[in-house]
Design goal:
The chain is α+β, with helices and mostly antiparallel strands. The chain contains ten helices and ten strands. It is globular, with a radius of gyration of 19 Å.
Length: 292
């Protein structure tokens, strides 16, 4: 499947956001609006006063997640052991901004980072969160599509992308091992039982408080289907010992584990191909390419 070109992201400045809020939510017009540092890629993110956050999709494709989040996040929140974002209000296009957008309650916390967390505790907390998420009724949930870049579907969607990145990295990685791991992942079989998944369990979306997992944010790529994409965190953030605990706690079989490794591989390989000087992707790639 051709994923098409990278979405064209649009700029959004504070003045434009101030006008949107004043026009559509005048009760909040007097509150200060400030950009959030490292506000993410899919959305332009701004603080609204001390207790709220604004998320404005940066491209048409990312805007597809807005209605999904407003419909499903309040439902998911009722059954999860940790706080997640729950929408307070939905904004509409205006003052030159073309998409729907969202107001959320601000959730305090420090983004997780490799080496700066209790790995064993984090592995257990992540597993508990995913177990609760996967127990939620998925029968009417959103199927894989452009709204979440086909997470929950087959890894073959990314085959061309991965092979293109591998071509760009000739001589820098073990080609044979990459393809061995990838082929095993894409050929593993999913039993077809739809489960809820987050879709982007990454460091920035895991908030810590006093070293413990406090909240999980940014559900723009959530949906129902094969939950393997949520296992990528086992290689991108966890160490070998905590990865084993994570897998055991979840009760993951070899086929699902292989697909999770495949999800971690394609994204990390592309990130490394885009910047071979970056230490983060190289570290993660080494974790993925360690024979298990």
């Amino acid at each position: 499947m051709d994923l098409g070109p990278v979405p064209q992201r649009i700029p959004v400045d504070v003045g434009q956001v101030e006008r949107l809020v004043a026009d559509q939510f005048p009760r909040w017009a007097s509150l200060p609006i400030t950009p959030v540092a490292r506000g993410g890629w899919d959305n332009r993110t701004f603080r609204l006063g001390d207790t709220m956050v604004l998320r404005l999709p940066s491209a048409r494709e990312y805007a597809l997640a807005v209605d999904k989040e407003h419909q499903w996040l309040p439902v998911l929140a009722q059954s999860l052991p940790l706080p997640i974002p729950v929408p307070l209000a939905k904004g509409e296009p205006g003052v030159g901004y073309p998409f729907s957008w969202s107001v959320y309650e601000w959730i305090e916390g420090e983004a997780a980072s490799f080496g700066a967390v209790d790995q064993i505790g984090l592995a257990d907390e992540l597993a508990e969160f995913l177990i609760a998420l996967q127990r939620i009724d998925a029968s009417a949930g959103p199927q894989p599509g452009i709204h979440n870049w086909f997470r929950g579907g087959t890894l073959r969607t990314y085959d061309t992308v991965l092979r293109g990145a591998l071509d760009d990295l000739r001589g820098l990685v073990d080609d044979e091992l990459v393809l061995e791991i990838w082929e095993h992942a894409v050929n593993s079989r999913w039993d077809g039982t739809d489960l809820w998944f987050h879709g982007d369990l990454a460091e920035a979306n895991l908030l810590l408080n006093n070293g413990q997992l406090h909240a999980v944010i940014d559900f723009g790529t959530c949906g129902v289907g094969d939950p393997a994409c949520d296992l990528a965190i086992a290689w991108t953030l966890l160490t070998t010992s905590s990865r084993d605990i994570f897998r055991e706690r979840l009760g993951v079989d070899d086929e699902l584990w292989s697909r999770g490794r495949g999800w971690a591989l394609w994204k990390t390989l592309v990130s490394y191909a885009n910047n071979t000087d970056a230490a983060g992707p190289r570290r993660v790639l080494d974790e993925i390419l360690t024979r298990e």
